Amino acid sequence: MSETAASFIAKSTIKAADVEHRRKINFNIGKYNAVVPQGKGQFDNVHLARERAKNIKWRAIETLDQQLEEFELNFSKRGGKVIWAENGQQAIDEILQICRQKNCQTLVKSKSMVTEEIHLNQALQENNIDSIETDLGEYIQQLDGEAPYHIVTPAMHKSKEDVAKLFAEKLGTDPKLTPEALTLVARNILRKKYVEAEVGVTGANFIISDIGGIAITENEGNARLSCAFPKTHIVVVGIEKIIPSLTDLALFWPLLSTYGTGQKMTVYNTIVTGPKQANETDGPEEMYVILLDNGRTNILQNPKQRESLYCIRCGACLNTCPIYKNIGGHAYGATYSGPIGSVITPHLQGMQEFKHLSYASSLCGSCTEVCAVKINLHELLLDNRKESVEEGLSSLAERAAWKIWRLANMNRSLMNMANGKLKNKWVNKVFTQWTARRGQLHFSDKTFNQQWKERFSQ
User: Fold this and answer.
1) Nearest C-alpha neighbor of 325 from the set 4, 6, 29
2) Which of 34, 206, 208, 400 has CA 20 to 30 A from 217's CA?
3) Same domain membership, residue 336 and residue 272
């Protein structure tokens, strides 16, 4: 068993027994479940909308090289600079180089899972650059020294009392402040940082190839401020975020807001096509887009797993997953948690270290049912399991156990040979890996085959 698998089991065991944690998660996800149907109401046929979105992403991923080159060409025409990064370290090196050129001491950063993926904040801190998360949820997590708990809602596992206590400890505020007052405290602190910062870093919800622009959707306006106030704007984005046309946003923005937060449309929707032009008064003087691979081409070259690159990071699969709702986001030990994280992480960070995530599933299919772009997530989890076995990553004991199981189940005389008590005793002692965290297997005294014969042979 790998260290990451052992850590996952230990953390998930603790969280699964934490009743208070489960209460907070169910409370917050319950609010989400209450408003999603309202967002869906804007679609005449929501299933058709999801199917069309999937087809658009299929086209984009199947022609990914052409789409990215078209984006670079159009973005460069307006003075933007594109940097191709094969891995996280290359992306960090490029960002640090830009920061050194700009004598950057303060950097403001909007919510971005891909920057979490490459551990950007840690790299900036090690190079004496003050990096401030400006999304409220991310700011809360940064104050607490924690990674985001959820793809969309970073501090979902914290109650308003938890946040008030954290602000009191870190910022010296009254521990009885209301959520509104806490928000104003964070706002007053962060507003000053936008003016001080030499560099702003954002992610992108979509890269638009035909206009050479990035699209950002948010509810707080912090990403827009991170784009506009600093003289230098750096975008870090995964190559899979490409969509072919500006007109595609008319479908993707409502889908993302509905399945992400239950809104018909998020509050701020921004398209940025480059640095400030000669006839413009606002915007950065320089703009860079870092197109990050970091294992995505491993998924691209896999005909079955390629579908996972359609993901628009709405987080719906996390909110419906019974595993996630019991063990939480941090137990996964990876940037991307929940069903989508369990699908892509083994390919982004290594099957040997993270194959266990694909087994952390009930295979109920709820993730596939709620996916905004109809990714067959539960089937991809099964494909991951198959790939891990084919790569020889299962133990000798596991392979032997399943070989015996298969032999017994394919042989009717063996199945009918022993009584139920003998089977129960033998199987539960041999399949200890199964029964260690599950109830014991139970066989009836007579097989279905034997009961059928007794009933109908006369």
Assistant:
1) 29
2) 34
3) no
Other beta carbons within 10 Å of 383? 17
Tell whether 428 is covered by a domain. Answer: yes
- Number of domains making up the chain: 3
* Nearest-angstrom CA–CA distance, 290 and 452: 65
For residue 290, the number of C-alpha atoms closer than 13 Å in the C-beta half-sphere is 29
pLDDT tens for each residue of 305-332: 999 999 999 999 999 999 999 999 999 9
Q: What is the distance between the alpha carbons of residues 324 and 331, in angstroms, rounded to a whole number? A: 9
Residue in the block written with tokens 């009254």:
174
| C-beta pairs of 394-398 under 8 Å, 24+ apart in sequence | 397/433, 398/433
Taking the model in full, what pTM does it have? Answer: 0.91
Same domain for 427 and 328: no
Residue 300, domain member (yes or no): no
Residue that is last in its domain, among 294, 322, 343: 294
pLDDT digits (tens, 9 = 90+) for 109-167: 999 999 999 999 999 999 999 999 999 999 999 999 999 999 999 999 999 999 999 99
Tokens describing residue 404: 């015996």
Residue 200 phi, psi dihedral angles, 5° rounding: -120, 135
Residues 6+ apart with CB under 8 A from 292: 85, 88, 91, 114, 117, 118, 236, 237, 238, 239
* Closest to 290 in 3D by CA, of 429, 94, 14: 94
Residue 367 is part of which domain span?
1-41+306-373+380-394
Q: Residue 30 burial (CB < 10 Å; 0-12/13-18/19+)?
A: exposed
214, 322: one domain? no
